[in-house]
User: Fold these one by one.
Assistant:
Number 1:
Amino acid sequence: MIDLRHLTKQFTTDDPPVVDDISLSIARGETFVLLGASGCGKTTLLRMINRLIDPTRGEVRINGRDVRSVPGPVLRRGIGFVRQDIGLFPHLSVQENIAIVPRLLGWPARRRQERAYELLSLLGLDPDAYASRYPSGLSGGQQQRVAIARALAADPPILLMDEPFAALDAILRDQLQLELLRIRAAVAKTIVFVTHDIFEAFRLGDRIAVMRDGRIDQVGAARELLGSPATPFVEAMMARASAQAALPDAGERSAG
Ligand SMILES: Nc1ncnc2c1ncn2[C@@H]1O[C@H](COP(=O)(O)OP(=O)(O)OP(=O)(O)O)[C@@H](O)[C@H]1O
Ligand SMILES: [Mg+2]
């Protein structure tokens, strides 16, 4: 469904590419996790999928079609995006934030409101209490839920999620991970999910791409990464995760 071919982004000619010749295919309905340390190019890769960043070389195809053949704004109406910085509009209410894409698509007001209420309920926020609030009146976790609702609003087949739970405390993160699993079971989506948390990757990902310095060391299901790591880097990462998982106290400390 999503094909990356030799995808490369070099912001400045003096520096090495931030995303360096990445080719991979993401299947319809798959939850595909990009896992890697800060600065390895995850956000840049994600933003090339919905054309917020143009590649230096290579291409992105969705259902066989080069994304450059579709105007960026039109493309993005069909791809839900949860930004790393949440990015709710402060001057719009919760309901208006959620309804941005439906509004662009010309949905009547009544239908927009119904959809916003439905999504708030799905994400565990009482619509009567929250729909007319402004983002400044919400906690970080509540804002994050609204950002997820906004991404889901027009029921796009593809969802891009850039470290959506990274800023949350461990309990809330756990809760929202479960909610995402529940949502995914209810509404079939192709999800590209960025994280630097290996346990989150294991929990959510059908497959995981381990990224390092703009390249991918290995793509595979958790058991493949654990059972047959392709590089010393992946091997060391899996060894650390296994050690942490065996010591719940240490795991909880690092997750918090
Ligand atoms: N517009 C830009 N101009 C120049 N360099 C950039 C630009 N955007 C990102 N970079 C650089 O590209 C590299 C990768 O950035 P990116 O945001 O993709 O990383 P990331 O993996 O998402 O990191 P994090 O986990 O911290 O969000 C970084 O070194 C960053 O400084
Ligand atoms: Mg990022």
Number 2:
Amino acid sequence: MKKYYVNKNAQGNGDHEVHAEDCIYLPNTGNRTYLGEFSSCIGAVATAKNIYPTTNGCKTCSNLCHTR
Ligand SMILES: [Zn+2]
């Protein structure tokens, strides 16, 4: 299980990226919302969608959930 976070700031395309706790692109504490512990990014992205309608997995740490 890993801890996952969603970036409070949207990307240029409007997506809020989901990151694992060990990602090099993990946003600073003030710029991220804790989602919980998940076995993969799938549950994390689903949870993030409850907060932000447009989310996407980070290409680096959550490539499985990176769709665009
Ligand atoms: Zn990441």
Number 3:
Amino acid sequence: MLGEIRGEVRFKEPLSFHTSLRIGGPADIFVVPQDVDDIRHALLFAEREQLPVAVLGGGNNLLVRDRGVRGVVFKLEGCLGRSEFSGEEAVAGAGASLSALIREAAALNLGGVECLVGIPATIGGALAMNAGTPDGCIGDFVSVAYFLYPDGTFGEFKPNAGAFTYRAFHFPPGAVLVGCRLRLHRRPLAEIQKDIKQRLKHKKATQPLALASAGWVWKNPVGLEPAARLVERCGLKGKRINGAEISSKNANFIVNRGGAAAADIVALMDLTRERVQAHFGLTLEPEMRVIGE
Ligand SMILES: Cc1cc2nc3c(=O)[nH]c(=O)nc-3n(C[C@H](O)[C@H](O)[C@H](O)COP(=O)(O)OP(=O)(O)OC[C@H]3O[C@@H](n4cnc5c(N)ncnc54)[C@H](O)[C@@H]3O)c2cc1C
């Protein structure tokens, strides 16, 4: 079945090459599919061999542990990488870039999704995380999500209330998202561009974009101060363990200043969790996903 894959299959591929943090041990079997059939072949192989499956989009929200990931790892960025527009709708493949979709929609005077600008993501990763900002999340725009079940059969899902929650999409467990349909609305290009410019300016001023990170480490606790502020109030801003550092620009980011291992990031997370628990009696919940051994 692996032999039928037209894309690439690599063994012991370092995942540090595929994550924004530039950290991560090897994937046993790393598949870069070319199309839905390739994903299906690899899923069937994993099912037959009883191997676990993990999916990477752009790797912008992932900490991969130092000993890597067992089983089959898909890298979907670029595969199913197109978005098509019709009327006020877009149909986007899971590997399409979110920022390219926002740009292409704007050129057609289609907006709404510009509230997501500056989030580095594939469409699949944005869906799985319900990526967003205080002004909106991708789930607000999804009319249908398309996926493959672990046995390779095709499924579609019309999200109901509660399908998308804060940084989560409750799609069938083990499914691989392959695309979605998004509702957009008419808005003049000039307005969208102005909006995008302001949002990117704000992001640049408040986030350590020049350094390797995986975005926010922690979810904001409901009804309390933002996680960044809580971490800062514990005196952890700028705290370093080897090459890993709690950003001095935004304490909800951990950056890799060079040579950090996943163990260093995990140690900073453990320290933060303990301090915030001790100071505020609150357990922070990670937003960044941690995978591997
Ligand atoms: C500088 C920076 C700024 C950021 N700012 C924001 C922000 O403002 N708002 C925000 O919400 N996020 C932000 N993030 C986090 C990140 O960009 C988002 O979580 C994004 O959605 C991740 O997309 P990805 O394609 O890189 O997914 P990945 O990181 O590759 O994967 C994320 C999760 O989705 C799953 N997944 C990915 N693709 C699929 C698929 N096709 N099928 C099934 N599961 C899949 C993975 O298994 C994993 O659990 C930021 C990150 C960085 C580095």
